[in-house]
Write a structure and sequence with these properties.
The chain contains three helices and no strands. It is mostly helical and 115 residues long. Helix 2 (41-77) runs antiparallel to helix 3. The protein starts with a helix and ends in a 7-residue tail after the last helix.
Length: 115
């Protein structure tokens, strides 16, 4: 059996499962495409995302400070280590946190302009 046969066989089973009636005798409920958010949900989600973004920014600042302190201590002791790679990872994480919101807005749109 080839990989494509396994794929199509699995896809057929999943499609059959999704189309199956509810064991209680009813039909499987389908979500509404034009639904609306519950009152206040958008505000709560925005608050949570803002807190997560603030925490990511704070973690980035702390990471840079800790990496700099470890670099200074190691340099004072005359030890060599891979601090630049650590600093690169921390700065890469900072860039990712800083650009996550704009990237998601660009890819998915804000929902207000119809894009």
């Amino acid at each position: 059996m080839s990989l494509s046969d396994i794929y199509y066989s699995s896809l057929a089973r999943v499609t059959t499962l999704l189309a199956a009636p509810d064991p209680a005798g009813g039909t499987v409920p389908q979500p509404s495409i034009n639904g609306t958010l519950p009152t206040g949900l958008a505000t709560k989600v925005q608050q949570v995302l803002s807190l997560i973004a603030w925490g990511g920014t704070a973690a980035g600042v702390v990471g840079v400070l800790i990496t700099g302190a470890v670099m200074a201590i190691s340099h004072k002791r005359g030890e060599s280590s891979e601090h630049m790679s650590r600093l690169g990872m921390v700065l890469g994480g900072c860039i990712l946190v800083a650009t996550a919101g704009p990237i998601v807005s660009w890819v998915f749109g804000t929902g207000t302009s119809g894009t």
